[in-house]
Design a protein that fits this description.
alpha+beta; 5-stranded antiparallel beta sheet; 3 helices
Length: 110
């Protein structure tokens, strides 16, 4: 992957909302809005993972893109010290958060 020290073009294209939606071992996910189309998106900033693993994740997202049950991959950008992956915004949160909410409903069994 080519790393760039130039201005991140995603910073010009998206308004990032605070606070972060979630944090994990490898990065942070933010809710963002495309300033041109006004569409919501999720931006995952990954900084603690090797290039090979990032390339695998991006490749997988591209290969499954368009599946009706998965969030849509939009684009990515390699920065000097991080990679930003933009996907469709999941209004109801991550799959794990949806499952946790369902499990709290009376009578719901996994």
């Amino acid at each position: 992957p080519k790393r760039s020290s130039k201005i991140n073009p995603l910073a010009l294209k998206y308004k990032v909302h605070q606070p972060a939606l979630g944090r994990g071992a490898f990065g942070v996910v933010y809710h963002a809005t495309n300033v041109v189309t006004n569409e919501d998106a999720a931006i995952k900033k990954i900084s603690n993972i090797g290039d090979e693993d990032i390339d695998k994740e991006i490749d997988l997202l591209r290969r499954v893109n368009g599946h009706e049950n998965l969030v849509k991959y939009i684009e990515h950008y390699y920065a000097e010290k991080a990679v930003f992956i933009v996907t469709e915004f999941a209004e109801y949160g991550s799959m794990s958060s949806v499952i946790r909410k369902l499990m709290r409903l009376p009578g719901y069994k996994v």
